[in-house]
Specification:
single chain, 304 residues, 5 helices, mainly beta
């Protein structure tokens, strides 16, 4: 399976690109703070730090450093932080209360750490305009990772868009050495989720107003389609089978459910219409099983 064309150019990230994103040469340093018991952070740093983290930088360890920069031309500030395991860069408007940047991420986070034998480095890029996560020209969030601290090329792990239609979320992850891909997208104002395992489509979810359609595929090429109520999460479908199993050999197994209860064999199973020879007793029996289902069959029978 190829990466979607709108994602392909974001598939890799070179750590050496960070300087282009940060643009530190365009800023002048105006404040510096390193937390210890004797010094206090400035009012400007406190204001910017509260905007980003929700509190003052009083709980930092002694190895954390904070820098506040002002853009040489624009009314833009940069709050930067450094520690042995991370570097952070946040861009704020002149009021120091609003994350904002045009054309480039307003939040850049780089992390590098080891836990036992596990080594990992991550880069997170998030786009803001006027305090809102917005990017008119591409994704709003990009998340990269690799498991080699000496490697400069990181691979895309997650990408998010804020488009009304089109791909809005794309997640690549490994679990027990198995590559999995998860895509959420919108089409005609309806959301869909696709899940792949080793590039094989394993699950599709389509989100409707009152129910969710789930289609799963196993390694024997058998697909199972289920209709699930959004409120109860039960198998539920009024106008057809709620569970359908199909193979490439064209065998098909269908099951009818109402609110999680399988419709018995002696009750009408609706699918693409009703036969003309059904009786009032058939309708009454369906109503005794489920009133809503019975009323649905009655209405269909009267209009047939």
């Amino acid at each position: 399976m190829k990466l979607h064309k709108s994602i392909r150019k974001y598939a890799k990230f070179n750590v050496n690109q960070l300087d282009e994103f940060i643009e530190l040469d365009s800023f002048d340093l105006i404040e510096f703070y390193m937390h210890d018991t004797k010094s206090q952070s400035s009012e400007l740093i406190d204001k910017a730090y509260i905007t980003v983290f929700g509190h003052k930088p009083t709980t930092l360890s002694k190895t954390n450093e904070i820098y506040l920069y002002k853009h040489k031309i624009d009314e833009l500030y940069l709050l930067a932080g450094k520690s042995p395991t991370s570097s952070t860069y946040f861009y704020l408007k002149s009021d120091l209360k609003t994350l904002h940047r045009n054309g480039k991420p307003a939040s850049i986070v780089k992390r590098k750490y080891t836990i036992g034998n596990l080594a990992e480095q991550n880069i997170f890029l998030t786009y803001y305009q006027d305090g809102k996560i917005i990017n008119k020209y591409g994704p709003v969030c990009l998340d990269y990772e690799n498991h080699d601290l000496n490697e400069n090329i990181l691979c895309l792990r997650r990408i998010e868009y804020n488009k009304r239609n089109g791909i809005i979320y794309y997640h690549v992850f490994t679990e027990d050495s198995k590559l999995a891909i998860e895509i959420i997208f919108r089409k005609k104002n309806r959301s869909y989720m696709l899940k792949y395992n080793y590039f094989k489509l394993m699950r599709v979810e389509a989100f409707f107003e009152k129910y969710k359609l789930i289609r799963e595929y196993d390694y024997c090429n058998i697909s199972t389609t289920s209709y699930v109520d959004n409120s109860s999460y039960y198998l539920h479908r009024i106008n057809g089978p709620a569970k359908i199993m199909t193979s490439q050999d064209y065998f098909s197994i269908k099951e009818w459910y109402i609110n999680g209860k399988m419709i018995p064999d002696d009750i009408i199973h609706y699918e693409k219409g009703l036969e003309k020879n059904i009786t009032k007793t058939d309708i009454l029996r369906a109503m005794m099983f489920d009133r809503v289902y019975g009323e649905f069959l009655k209405e269909k029978h009267e209009t047939t």
